[in-house]
Predict the 3D structure of the following.
Amino acid sequence: MTIDQILRDVDAPGVTRADMQRLLLCAMGRPRGDRAWLLAHGDGAVPAEASARFQELVQRLRDGEPMAYLIGSQDFYGLELQVDARVLVPRPDTETLVDWVLEVLPPTASADVLDLGTGSGAIALAIRHQRGRASVTAVDRSPEALDVARANAQRLGLDVRFLQGDWLEGVSDHYDLIVSNPPYVAQDDAHLPALRHEPEQALVAGQDGLDDLRRIASGAGARLRPGGWLLLEHGWHQAGAVRELLASQGYEGVSSRKDLAGIERCTGGQWPGLG
C-alpha cells in the first residue's frame, strides 16, 4: 500500500488529515514535521511493519489517547517537549500563564522563580528560555515526572534546578515569583473519563477542584519576597474562588487573565511589603 492509499483509506472519523500524517511519519520513523516528504513520496510503498504500527497508533488515537503521547512530543511556547503518560500534556491555555510571567519579569531581570508541579517542565523551561537571567527552580511530587522534566531540560540545554517535593514542603528559599498550574479538576467532574489516559494525580484536586490551589495560596507568602508575585492557572469557572483565596491571604492587586477563548484562566497577585 502506498502513502497516499493508506492516508486515504484510514478509518478515523473526526481525525484531521494533518494528524494522520503525523502518525504515519511516526510509524515510519521519520521526523514528525516532515509532511513535505510525505507529499513528495505519496506513491511510495509503506513497509508492512510501518503500516501495522500506523494502524495501532490510529486505534489508540480513536480510543482517546492524546496525540502527544502517540508521537512522543508536544510544542509549548516555542519549545518541543518530550512527553509520555508520566506527565500531563501541556495545553495551549497554559501559555497564557507564561505570558503573564514574562510581563512581570523584565528581560534583564535576575529574578528567582519557583514553578510548583512542573510535570514535563513546560512552564519552567519556557520561562528559562525566554528570561535567560532568571534562576528557575521546578518542584514536583512525582519522581517519574521529574525524570521527564530533567530530560527535557538536558535536551534543550536549559539550566533549571529540579526538586522533588509536595508543593512547598521542603522549599526553604525565597522567590520573586511563584507560578503553578496545579490540579484543579473536581473528583466527580464529567470530563474526567475523556482524560483517562493522563495521570489522575496531575488533574484531580478534591471535591471542588480547589484543594491544591488552597495549599499553594496559603503557603506561598512565606516563600515570596516583598512585592513578589503568585500566578496560578485554574479551571474555567474557578477565577472568582481563586481571587477570594488570594485576597484572604493578603495578596494585593489580585486579578485574572483570559485565555485565547476568552475564559478567565489565570489569577494572581503580589505579596505585600514592597515599599
User: Anything to note?
Assistant: The first helix runs from residue 3 to 9. The chain has a mean pLDDT of 93. The two ends are 71 Å apart (CA to CA). Residues 87 and 199 are 6 Å apart (CA to CA).
